[in-house]
Amino acid sequence: MAAEAAVLWKQGWHLSAEGIAALKQENNISTIDDIVKKALDEDLRSIGEKFLPEDISRGGSSELIGPCVLQVTKVRNVSAPKANEESGHAPRMLKVQMTDGHTTCIGLEVAQVQQLSLSTPPGTKVKLTGSIPISNGFLMLEGSNVKVLGGQVEKLFSRWDIQRRLAHHSRANVKVEGGAPPFVPFGQRVSSGAVATKDIRYKKSLPKKEATTEEADEFSEQRKAVIAEVSKAKEGTKTFGGTGSLPANAAVSEKKWGGAQDRR
Q1: How far, in Å, are 50, 175, 178, 183, 185 from residue 195 at the CA level?
Q2: What's the pTM?
Q3: Which of 33, 47, 57, 94 is the most exposed place for a label (fewest CB within 10 A)?
């Protein structure tokens, strides 16, 4: 067992003794090549031996010496918006999250690695070779120090594939369902479909013409009634201080102060 582990270690495979035993027992294999072939489709979190420094992502190391085989857990294109990572308006820069099964590290694509892409699923094994520089906790990846070995961890792949299909379905139906608008690169016109959807939502929020006409007629009748009442009231209004005369039946009494009548 120790001899097999030493050979695998030289090839970059850091597998635990328990992991090697499980691979051999479950598949009835004995050669190193058979172990490697089976390990490609297994999760390193269950068979891997701890290899990466714990502080590798916190700037505790300046380089990583290969060879070492790591497992991809996530790939992102950080040069494009998250909603449209496949955009080709800027040169891509992949951020690759990897693990030895115990410790996670992050690699940054400083020169294009042809075998890596956004379609690389979690569980894929990559082999880092030579001396990989580390800057601010990021491994500087390029074609000369990265080799994609492949492999497919069924549990990880299935979950990733479902999430990917759902995300694509959501983007395809965003106009119909009224969600957030799709990403439109600067300088391009918004498609007519998006404008039409906006117009439809706006028209739905407007009241119906019939209801508006009924309200207008009711308001007109109330206005006429108020005008009639005001006009009727004006007919019996008294005028003070003007040239008009008081009504004939109005009784006016005059009392003078300071006259003879007050000196009784």
Answers
A1: 55, 10, 12, 14, 16
A2: 0.64
A3: 33
